[in-house]
Design a protein that fits this description.
This protein is an alpha+beta fold. The protein is 20% helix and 47% strand. It starts with a helix and ends with a helix.
Length: 133
């Protein structure tokens, strides 16, 4: 019984450590590379995520809902791209698969109409973000 209790306590402690590693990604500035190799910058604040593709100049606003500390859903609210407007109100679930401290995180998502997408979201400072913007 004592061994079982110790095992359960260890699992709870490790689970809390893993999930708390994702909390610093809930707000802030980030960038990632899309499937065409373009850099996309991201700002998260409150319940929204704002993206700008630096090559195509496409901007999007997504509502972000955190399902737990390491997974979230984004729902497209608005965009300046006619092609992407057909995805308005579509939801994508993203899972942070490997937190990488202040550098960012590896993620995977099941995007509408495509295969499972994997990538890396790099964390940026406010200055780095606005220098790119």
């Amino acid at each position: 019984m004592l061994l079982l209790s110790a095992f359960l306590i260890c699992n709870v402690v490790f689970a809390q450590t893993d999930s708390s590693a994702c909390v610093n990604y809930h707000k802030g500035f980030f960038s990632y590379t899309d499937s065409l190799g373009n850099t996309v910058i991201v700002q998260r604040k409150n319940k929204y995520q704002y993206e700008k593709n630096l090559a195509t100049k496409v901007k999007t606003q997504d509502k972000i809902k955190w399902l737990n500390s390491c997974s979230y859903q984004i729902t497209l609210v608005s965009t300046n791209s006619k092609a992407e407007r057909k995805f308005k109100y579509s939801t994508t679930t993203v899972i942070i698969s490997k937190p990488d401290g202040n550098n960012g995180y590896a993620y995977s998502c099941a995007c509408a109409g495509t295969e499972k997408v994997k990538g890396y979201m790099k964390q940026l400072s406010k200055k780095e973000f606005f220098d790119l913007y």
